[in-house]
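Note to self: user wants both folds in one dump. Writing first protein now.
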Amino acid sequence: MKIEYKREYLITGGTGSLGKAILNQLEGNKNIKGIRIYSRDELKQYNLKKQLEGKDMPPIAFIIGDVRDYRRLAEALKGVTHVIHTAALKHVPIAEDNPLEYIKTNVYGTENVMMACIAANVKSAMFISTDKAVESINLYGASKMCAEKLWSRGSIYSGGWGTNFAVVRYGNVIGSRGSILDMIKLLDKGKKIPITDPEMTRFWIPLPKVAKFVLDCLDSCMPGYTYIPKMISCSLEVFIKATTGTDESNWKIVGRRPGEKAHEMLINQEEIFRTNEKEDKYIIAPQGISLWITSLKDCLYSDDRNPLYTDNIEVIKGLLNGD
């Protein structure tokens, strides 16, 4: 990642898994003026500050605030050049029972961040999205889809000469807080592992790779564009076998939770006509722009239609090891 001038970063939800991974990527970087961590939980900020002690980090400021609070965001963004917006409510079943709270944070909160970025004349701002925003069937995915649409129009709202707004979209992160790996680690060894549906498929990507991808895209993104890393996908059966070394005799099938899909998507039928495939990623142009003849013939699903789909347990083990 090439940085030609000193930047001031602000990361919303910066005490989460992705925020921490981004900080790890920025360790030792002398071309950064400072990093601001904007989040609600004072205990998580305290713990993160302790974890960073002794590391060669740029100056870091911890700011207590909620993305629902525009005035606080406006204060926090003064002098910031680059924003990574990770803050969100993310639990799919809980979203089904608390739709308004998810809309307040994921949609209205994103609007607040976007408008505060414009007011502060931030240079570039990246929104962190999810495959669940693509043809969503649950409230969480729908809220992220709305936020994507809003964010992608931000460069127009800024007059075309202000903040550069772009989106990164990806699937399940290996190593993130709340991931399937964490749930497995919490289980007593004598109990069976609860699995929703072993035939369900998901996209998977290691946390450090996501953090690097976000920073690289922030460095070179175009306004209104969406960036998607190429990701391995597999069934839950293969993933559980790779992560736990267990087989069907150790599992308890509990069925799908409210709002869950059998297979996820990263690119839908409408988007393939404005998608450019690169060696390591897909780039989706904004609606109304067709710059390329697309190389995609179908949507990007997490099942065997994904070119990187695998049923090889060793491949997944390599992914877990960061290969």
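First done. Writing the second protein, which came from a different request thread.
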Amino acid sequence: MKKSFKFANVFAGIVAITALSIRDAPAHDAPSVEYASLGDSFSAAAGVLPLVPDSPLICTRSQRNFAHIIANRRNYVLTDVSCAGAETADLYREQGSGIPPQLIVLNDRTDLVTLTIGGNDQAVFGTAATGCARELANLPQFENPCESFYGTSFVDSIKSTTYPDLVRALSTIHYAAPHAAVLVVGYPWLVPESGDCIPQMLVAPADIPYLRNLQVVLNDAIRQAAEATDSIYVDMSVASDGRDACQPRDRRLVEPMLLPTQFMPLHPNLEGQEAIAEEVMKAIDE
């Protein structure tokens, strides 16, 4: 890891004064790990029940999101402020009534920060998914109606606006939590590289590579922002390859547009959250 955990550098030393003092010395618990989970619906696990009690309903924050899975397995002290719909700006501003800026939970005692962020900036994910479904009606006229309509607008927006916003966000997290390791997670694949994904996804077959490339560009922007800020990028591309929303129920990590098994389509299911947790823990242990 580029930045070691504060707790990983702590070691216990016993000074042998007498054999009796060694035998009678009280046991000390290992220092607790202060863990903060930030970010959007992929961090919150929107759609995975049950929800965290007393959390804002709009955040759809699950008790089984990847941060809770990690904290439970490793006995970390978790503060989870992830919230569905969060953009990078919501790290600094109120996302809605009763939802304060996410960064206020960070301090110099924070050891670990994880987040997914960037997909909601300029509404890239939402507009692309719903827009491609809408443009499907133009399929007889255009083989790839979504790409024909939107062109490079999403990619241009990611490169010109989302990337610098990600750099600013990650830099500010480091400033607010100077001793923390900051892990930013890439988005798992929503669609395969190519193929027909109807009816799971209302996207023309020729537009599947277009949506896939959009994710490639977004995840690459997240990775570059992580490198620019001494953060750690958790790559989900291998773990989620072949397990996108177009796959059968027992294979996919992300739920499809039509007939999802949870109330939030196009988001990781419980298996997806567990897969993210595994990749994050691997990054922690490196």
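Dump finished. Worth passing along: The chain has nine helices and five strands.
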